């Protein structure tokens, strides 16, 4: 698979949204949306790009593949005010594609935060979405996830009061790392728990160092948007594939069972056996990518 792409900066009322198109220029349009820190650089050549495994295992370059940087996220989109809800993110994305003259999508695929945005887009009057894949996301937040994100904001507020603003963001990210990774995977990788602590803080500092202001917004803006997100699954009329992951403390299995029971057309519900918890959506693409490929090819 070759790496070629075209980037677009779409001017909207609140700012400029960065989009990327790659894959088959004449193929059916597929929109791929990632987590709060994931942007449009999902695939940058074989083995490169933060979600390259899914692109490869699901054959996504056979489609006109679109990705983007969220308003307020870690990429190259810019805005005067970060959207405060998932629905506002979805509305901005829909208007950007309207500006491009692209309103028909063969599929919208979303992982983590992107799964929530994908569900919101699937109900948008502006876009026609033929099928939907929801990966490591659900129609409402779990109480435990809301608790964790509340603690992240507490860390930031307390550090601000102590004059250590960046340290507060780093601690919020460290707690996020704890919630993203599965217990089995961490135990296997770090038999010495002290090394796991070092890893957690190293990864947190790396994110903050990229852009402290953007990193802060992941917790002060994206977190509350996830906490407030609710969508009635009955409104999702498209065939919908739902993928969850063992040990995911952010999106526990009972939430996905509830989601699937309420969907008008649940194409399938797969639970991936993984040691990696929530981050299985990035690290275990070989386990669910082929089913996603089949879903996209189904009549």
Structure at a glance:
Residues 28-281 form the AB hydrolase-1 domain. One of its GO terms (biological process) is homoserine metabolic process. The chain is of the alpha/beta class and 299 residues long.
Q: Report mean pLDDT, rounded to a whole number.
A: 96
Class inferred from helices and paired strands:
alpha/beta
Give the helices and strands as they follow along the chain: EEEHEEHEEHEEHHHHHEHEHH
- The CATH class of the largest domain: Alpha Beta
Question: What is the overall number of helices?
Answer: 11
CATH topology of the largest domain: Rossmann fold
CATH superfamily heading of the largest domain? Alpha/Beta hydrolase fold, catalytic domain
N→C terminal distance: 25 Å
The second-level CATH architecture of the largest domain is: 3-Layer(aba) Sandwich
Rg calc: 18 Å
Weakly predicted, low-confidence segments: none
Largest sheet: 9 strands, mixed
Estimated share of beta-strand residues: 15-25%
Task: Kindly state the percentage of residues in helix.
Answer: 40-55%
Number of strands: 11
């Amino acid at each position: 698979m070759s790496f070629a792409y075209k980037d677009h900066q779409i001017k909207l009322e609140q700012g400029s949204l960065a989009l990327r198109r790659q894959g088959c220029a004449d193929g059916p349009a597929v929109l791929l949306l990632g987590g709060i820190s994931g942007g449009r650089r999902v695939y940058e050549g074989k083995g490169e790009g933060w979600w390259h495994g899914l692109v490869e295992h699901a054959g996504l370059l056979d489609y006109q593949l679109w990705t983007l940087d969220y308003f307020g996220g870690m990429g190259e989109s810019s805005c005067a005010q970060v959207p405060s809800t998932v629905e506002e993110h979805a509305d901005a994305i829909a208007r950007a594609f309207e500006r491009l003259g692209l309103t028909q999508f063969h599929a919208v695929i979303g992982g983590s935060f992107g799964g929530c945005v994908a569900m919101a887009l699937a109900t948008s009057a502006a876009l026609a979405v033929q099928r939907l894949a929801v990966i490591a996301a659900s129609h409402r937040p779990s109480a435990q996830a809301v608790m964790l994100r509340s603690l992240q904001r507490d860390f930031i507020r307390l550090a601000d009061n102590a004059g250590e603003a960046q340290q507060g963001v780093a601690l919020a990210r460290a707690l996020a790392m704890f919630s993203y990774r599965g217990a089995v995977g961490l135990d296997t990788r770090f038999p010495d728990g002290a090394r796991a602590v070092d890893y957690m803080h190293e990864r947190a500092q790396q994110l903050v160092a990229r852009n402290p202001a953007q990193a802060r917004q992941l917790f002060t803006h994206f977190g509350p948007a996830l906490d407030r997100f609710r969508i009635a699954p009955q409104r999702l009329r498209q065939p919908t594939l739902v993928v969850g992951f063992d040990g995911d403390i952010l999106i526990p299995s009972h939430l996905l069972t509830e989601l699937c029971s309420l969907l008008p057309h649940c194409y399938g519900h797969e639970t991936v056996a993984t040691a990696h918890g929530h981050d299985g959506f990035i690290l275990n693409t070989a386990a669910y990518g082929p089913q996603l490929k089949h879903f996209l090819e189904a009549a």
